Amino acid sequence: MNDFIFFFNQVVIGGAVLGSIYALGAVGITLIFGILRFAHFAHGDMMTMGGFVAFLLAGIVAATGIAFPLPTGFVVLPFAMVIAAVLALGIDKGFYAPLRARGARPVTLLIASIGVTMMIQGVIRLFFGSSSYSFFEGGSKKLYRIDLPFEGVTRPISFTEPQLLLVILTAVAVIALHLFLTRSRLGKGMRAMADNADLARVSGINTKLVVRVTWVIAGALACLAGTMLALDVSLKPDLAFNIVLPIFAAAIVGGLGHAYGAIAGGFLLGFAETMAVFNWAVLLRPFRDALPEWFEIPSSLALVQSEYKLTVAFIILVVVLLVRPTGIFKGAST
Amino acid sequence: MTMRYVGLFSGLFVLIVVVGLFMGAPFTVRLMVEAFAFALIAMGLNIQWGFGGLFNFGILGMLMVGGFAMVFIAFPVNEAFWASDGPAMLGMTLFAAAIGAVLIVLAHNVQRIGIIGKWRGAVIVLAWFVAYVIFRSQMDPAASYITSEAGWIGGLGLPVLLGWAFGGVLAAAIGFFVGKISLGLRTDYLAIATIGIAEILRAVIKNVDWLTRGTLTVSPIPWPVPNPQAFQAMGHDPSMSFVLARSGFLVLVVAVVAIALFLIHRAYNGPWGRMMRAIRDNHIAAGSMGKDVTKRQLELFVFGSALMGIGGAILTSFVGIYDPSSYQPINHTFIIWVMLIVGGSGNNFGALIGGLFIYIVWVLSEPMAQALFLNLSDFSQGMGWGEIPDISARAIQMRVFVLGLVITIALRFAPKGLLPEFVRRHD
Amino acid sequence: MNVVELKNVVAGYGGAPILNGVNIAIEASDIGVIVGPNGAGKSTTLKAIFGLLTVTEGEVEFEGRDITNSEPDRLVPLGLSFVPQEHNVFTSMTVHENFEMGAFVRRDDLSASLEMVYEMFPDLKAKRNQNAGELSGGQRQMVAMGRALMSQPRLLMLDEPSAGLSPRYMMEIFEQVVKINAAGVGILMVEQNARQALAFATKGFVLASGQNRYTGTGRELLDDPEVAKSFLGG
Fold it and tell me: Where along chain A do its domains lie?
């Protein structure tokens, strides 16, 4: 039984945490793709930027000496999200909007987004260096342990407070996004523009407003994901740059432009990664007596070594691109 | 237009001379060797993107492959490996891989015995899994045996120039497979697919210690020309021997670049180049005229990859150390894009001048930022605000920012680059 | 008063102009039909009115107000509406949502307009929660027209509404056009099925090479032997 709890902690909790981060990032990428038709490569760095904004705010709040029952980084999140949304709007206005106004091809915007990636990274490192920071300087993350009332079970189900908050927040964000896209006038306008931008324009939909709303949502969600990721691990300048590819993979696996697909793709990749590096030998051990004599359980029975964890997402991505380039949820609407 | 070429190249020459005056000869010659190697890589990207419109975000992978190929050819032989059971075990691994490959090929053909649709898919997946398990069952023990007995397999001890050539060949081979599986994709998917494949390559090269020594790094890698130590042994002082040795290297690299430039230029202005441009500008029309678009695009991708591989091999042999963890997307993929866009996509000389100029900007923005910060720091100290901490660490980050700024400015104000593509009109 | 008036409009996509001085005037009680050979600039005329390409010379007026080169999101609230020829529904959205998108510029209660549209196209009422992409070509055309009517326009522009439709659907669409017009909405449409359309047009415009060739009532054009010979296929 202990082995199963180990499995639960590693794969189910680990996958849910990773999947939440991927999902939040992938939604932003997929919304931007749906509205502006380009792969926004700087999205990972917008996540990192959001994390640093929250970190600065948390530092200011901590300096006032007010104590909260929740992590400070979490408390300042709404404000950080607002600032991140404004920054995202500024980035669009400064770097992408002029190119769109010129009628540049989407690939030009993709290349421009590399420039933005480098500028964001440069600025962050200019001010913060390349070291990592913790939101829990001096304190420690609250750890939850749930002991199961079974005989012989000694290992508890365990997760940290940031992990719990992350999964809850992701669920809230997904529901809020769903309601926005299906109930609100602007959200429907966004779906309309993703569906058929020319017709949206002809219908009198204010496409410039829709573009702004898209950046606000993508920027805010990126900040949410970046901050929660930094709370879970630690904050460093290449925090999200390293995972922007799995996030893209999630968006593509879910079908670029499809918000629900991106969420599903995020969780799919999150669980796939944790399952691929999980040592399945652990689950065989309880059945040792039932297995035949000649069968020896190897000490390591993982599908891939943990050094190759990140490549799992790429391999899934490449396979999906080859087999079903439109994503596995083809037919799902925005 | 000719004036523009003359002006830009003489401007660049003046810039190099000024750099030489300020930074000294050893630094400048080193800078030029690396700049020309990067220019060669930018020309490779120009073949893919400028001529073919094929997005490649996986340049880093090609450079790593080129570097590894050079190490494998040119590094001295590791006797301990050849004396051990390692070669035999690798042979077994190869055999296992072949069995796996046969299984996969068979699985892809099961429709002939009436297994179709979902069942065929299941058989294929199963075959891949079994092949993977068979391969791993031989690979893992071989890898751990080699690392414990001999460290790694070592090189072949052959001439370095052969290593450069092999770098091109191996990168071309990898490029063939990458192109084969991803060239049918739309541009933005192609970008993500190529970067994904490059990241897989990076992870593999970084972790297969038995083949590449991984994070343990390989050094010293021999030079194709006498190295500084050789000149020092001849009695030159250290600074002079660096200049002499690096100059010899520079001559070799410039020769390679010149040959590549000549060959590309000839091909591009011939019927082959015309067809390529036709395909890029309207591949539907070109396809309907009976041109095999995918095959031509694959050719471009392979040629471009070969140049990248050679460039990667040159860079590795110049620094004399192969360190897989030193490869970073910004330093080895994005910078090449900046070079090509700023220089002028679709123009070989644009790629050349972009490569040289951007590499100089990239390297020099560090000392310049440092000088700027030191002045600012003095100023803020003078104002009583205290000094700026960690100046040298911060200055090195400035160049990433500068690079990003340069490409966004170029895209906005000079999207065709310094030397725009020369468009011939036949009508 | 004219609901829309084009005065010597020259327009194009940046290169050589496609319209070389087009004159059109439509009153609220009119059904105007533009006919002409391929490449004459029929659809371009509608797009020029709607600000989808640049007017370099001349003027476009809507109810006496200059609207030359205005963006659609300003024109729709004024009372113009446009049904493009192709890709004219949001395929991933339901019929109902398509109608809501037509009324994007309105902030008031939509129920009366929705009722009117469903009354006009009763087939769609049952399919209101179905994605528009799942409908047949004729039904899609109805969704497109319904969407355009949801902004309560005073001028409805239709680009080849009968293209690719069966004769049954074509007649139904034309009937609805006449009904919409009877309710006080000016109509300006481009049609390939010139004879059928001119039969009920109060104003007909024959364009060729981006210029007016003939202008008259639908009847006059149909009876003109020159027009019949050159543009209506004998």
Answer: 2-243
- A204 contacts in chain C (CB < 8 Å): 72-73, 75-77, 104-105, 151
Checking if the pLDDT of B427 tops 60, the result is no
Instruction: Give all chains having 3 or more CB-to-CB distances under 8 Å with chain C.
Output: A
Instruction: Out of 3.40.50.1110, 3.10.129.10, 1.10.3720.10, 3.40.50.300, select the CATH number for domain C2-79+153-231.
Output: 3.40.50.300
As a whole number of angstroms, the distance between CA B150 and CA B170 comes to 25
Q: Where are the domains positioned within chain C?
A: 2-79+153-231, 87-152
Percent of chain A whose pLDDT exceeds 90: 54
Residues B333, B311: one domain? Answer: yes
Fill in the DSSP letter of residue B150. T
B330 and B344 both lie in a single domain: yes
Q: How far is A244 from chain C (nearest CA, A)?
A: 28
Q: Residue B151: which residues within 8 A CB-CB, separation 6 or more?
A: B78, B80, B81, B213
Looking at the complex, does the CB of residue B394 fall below 8 Å from at least one CB of chain A?
Answer: yes
Mutating which of A99, A126, A315 best tests the B interface, going by the most B Cβ atoms within 10 A?
A126
CATH number assigned to the domain comprising residue B157: 1.10.3470
Pick the residue from chain A with its C-alpha nearest to C84: A199
Cis-peptide, bond into residue A98, ω within 30° of zero? no
Q: Are residues B84 and B185 in the same domain?
A: no
What is the rounded radius of gyration, in angstroms, for the C-alpha atoms of chain A? Answer: 21
Residues B365-406: pLDDT tens digits? Answer: 888 888 888 888 888 888 777 777 777 777 778 888 999 999
Best CA proximity match to C147, nearest among C132, C134, C162, C135: C132
Whether the CB-CB separation of B279 and B293 falls below 8 Å is answered with yes
Write out the residue range of the structural domain in which residue B63 sits.
2-78+152-377+389-413
Digit-coded pLDDT (tens) for A182-235: 999 999 999 999 999 999 999 999 999 999 999 999 999 999 999 999 998 889
Please check whether residues B15 and B139 belong to one and the same domain: no
DSSP bridge pairs for C5: C25, C61
Picking from B110, B129, B151, the residue at the C-terminal end of a domain is B151
Pairing of strands C31-35, C203-208: parallel
What is the interface pTM, i.e. ipTM, of the complex? 0.92
Q: Does B131 touch chain A (CB under 8 A)?
A: no
Number of domains composing chain B = 2
CB atoms within 10 A of CB A83: 20
Chain A residues inside the 8 Å CB shell of C93: 188, 191-192, 195, 333
- Please state, rounded to an integer, the average pLDDT across all residues of chain B: 89
170-189 in chain A: CB under 8 A from chain C? 185, 188-189
Q: Same domain, yes or no, for B357 and B290? A: yes
Cα nearest neighbour of B196 on chain A: A314
Question: Band of the pLDDT at B281, cuts 50, 70, 90?
Answer: confident
Q: Is residue B423 in a domain?
A: no
Q: What is the pLDDT of residues C69-85, one digit of tens each?
A: 999 989 999 999 999 99
Residues B324/B205, Cβ–Cβ less than 8 Å:
yes
